[in-house]
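=== RUN LOG ===
request id: a7f3
mode: sequence -> structure
chains: 1
length: 281
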Amino acid sequence: MLLVHDGRLHYEDHLADVFPDFPTYGKTITIRELLNHTSGLVDYEDIMAKQYAGIPDDKIPQIRDAGVLDLLNRQTGTKFMPGTRWEYSNSGYVVLAMVVEKRSGMRFGDFLRRRIFTPLGMTDTVAHEKGRGEVTHRAYGHTRTTTGWDQTDQSSTSATLGDGGVYTSLDDLEKWEHALANHTLLSAKEIEPALTPAIAANGAPLRQSDGSLAPLYGFGWFLNPYHGHRRYAHYGETVGFRTAIQRFPDDRLTVIILANRAEVDAPALAESVADLYFSKR
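=== RESULT ===
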């Protein structure tokens, strides 16, 4: 969105416009569809699951964003015609990180630092890349076992940045929330596409592969209301970690959950906090 603000990118640009060597099917996928999860790109985690079937995850080399793009270069098409269905795809956001690199001329982590983290004073936030600086005071992921806890902190997909890999704190996320609420980085008009639910190319509500209605989704935000309260939300999970952010703009309430234990239902926990707040009003 910052690159669109700069005039270096357009939502209707196609994937093949950014990467001319991408397979032919990239000519049918727009940046908007990548942001909305309506691109139909095959999820790279599914590709890896087939490629390394039967191999323990700790024996699989970590993949990075460029490696995901290479995997997608070997595919012959999408799972469905772009713009016709909704399906969450980590591939889409990894590819978007590579789009940022291509159009900005800098590493994705450097772009985030220069254009977001530093301007907002998020001094404890970093898009972590091995060998390019350590994360201080960080929590390590854990999973409960029958005998206690195992440290489960990294997986074969933990090194990608487009769909994860950002280490941050509650204090810095409060700064991020403040910037979103006050339109520090983008104007209210510019942020509208991120908060507008995607629809099918024919104007109909989007559906998922099982035929059910898709969640209301913008650019990186689930937009389904909660008990009549307008809500912008997202969750995240990886080995040993569960996270959630739920923003209720009309109520001036934001709930952020960061957990370094795998059994936590972060969205449900966020909703329970919101329930407490709403019950007292």
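=== NOTES ===
The longest strand covers residues 241-248.
The first helix runs from residue 2 to 6.
=== END ===
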